[in-house]
Design a protein that fits this description.
With about 190 residues, the protein is an alpha/beta fold. About 55% of the residues lie in helices and about 15% in strands. It has a three-stranded parallel β-sheet, with helices on one face. Strands 4-5 form a two-stranded antiparallel ribbon. A hairpin with a 2-residue loop joins strand 4 and strand 5.
Amino acid sequence: TIAALEQDVPSGFDGTIFEVVAEGLGDTGKALAELHRIGRRSEANISTTSVKRRDELQHVLDSGGGWALSNQIENVLSRTRLNPEDRFPGLSAGMKRRTLFARALASNPDLLLLDEPSLGLAPLVVKRIFEIVKKINSENNTTVFLVEQNANLALKTAHRGYVMENSRIIMADAADKLMVNEDVRKAYLGI
């Protein structure tokens, strides 16, 4: 599978962080998100129709590996330090990007495409995201294609780097070799 984190936060997401992440995981994820929405209602405010639908969803999840998927989502949210009950529409732009990063991770992709993952995030959050990227690359053997203007951070994370200018690749090499390349150091690393 391929998962992506784009620069811009798409519109149209509603619900809690858990629901936004779950909805990106196919039919079973959508069932989890719907069950979560029903569960947020108090027992006093739940209709007979909702109770019936909740029972149907629980059956779907029992037979389709839904509880394992729920655990997977919870693990990713814990790893990215996101509160599953926070409402997505009220989040800052940076928190929305973190949520969408978690959504991409929860799909357990073979290829993860990241477009400026540090954009708009606090330095500590950026550090945590790049730690996660390195970890999923090494532990899950996930290929990560990273586009990042912070060349220092990108090269410390990557195995291989490509330097682009005016939409053209002008240099390509192992990341550790690019880190010590005099031209790269002067132009992109501020050294």
